[in-house]
Design a protein that fits this description.
This protein has a single domain, classed as 60s Ribosomal Protein L30, Chain: A (2-Layer Sandwich). The chain is built from 5 helices and 4 strands.
Length: 120
């Protein structure tokens, strides 16, 4: 297992724990609502999710200055939270968000947060 695979597995475990502990919200509408209420600390978005889903949430995240971590698979992200697929998960617990950021900053460069230009 590569270092990237290990980091991704840790990320998915943290996201799953966050959902079970009510430190994360799942799905485009719940993430949008958390952003509007000012509760969102970090978002995890699947790059293979439908363009429509991502267009509903990424511009709002960018406008509010919310960091987005990119993962390659909606199926993997969904599996981490008990769904078949999901486009986005929002982290509402600040300590969980800090833990995911620390994990991402220790990961290889191509697994880090999306750059601003990638969001649109």
């Amino acid at each position: 297992m590569s270092r990237e695979d290990v980091a991704r597995a840790k990320l998915f475990r943290l996201v799953g724990l966050g959902v079970r502990g009510r430190g994360a919200v799942v799905g485009v509408e719940q993430v949008r609502e958390a952003v509007r209420r000012g509760k969102l600390h970090l978002a995890i978005a699947a790059t293979d999710a439908s363009r429509n889903s991502l267009e509903k949430v990424l511009p709002l995240l960018k406008a509010r200055g919310t960091a987005v971590v990119e993962v390659p698979s909606a199926a993997e992200l969904g599996a981490a939270v008990g769904r078949e697929k999901t486009a986005v998960v929002g982290i509402v617990d600040s300590r969980l968000a800090d833990g995911i950021r620390a994990l991402e900053h220790s990961a290889p460069p191509d697994d880090r947060e999306m750059e601003e230009g990638d969001a649109g």
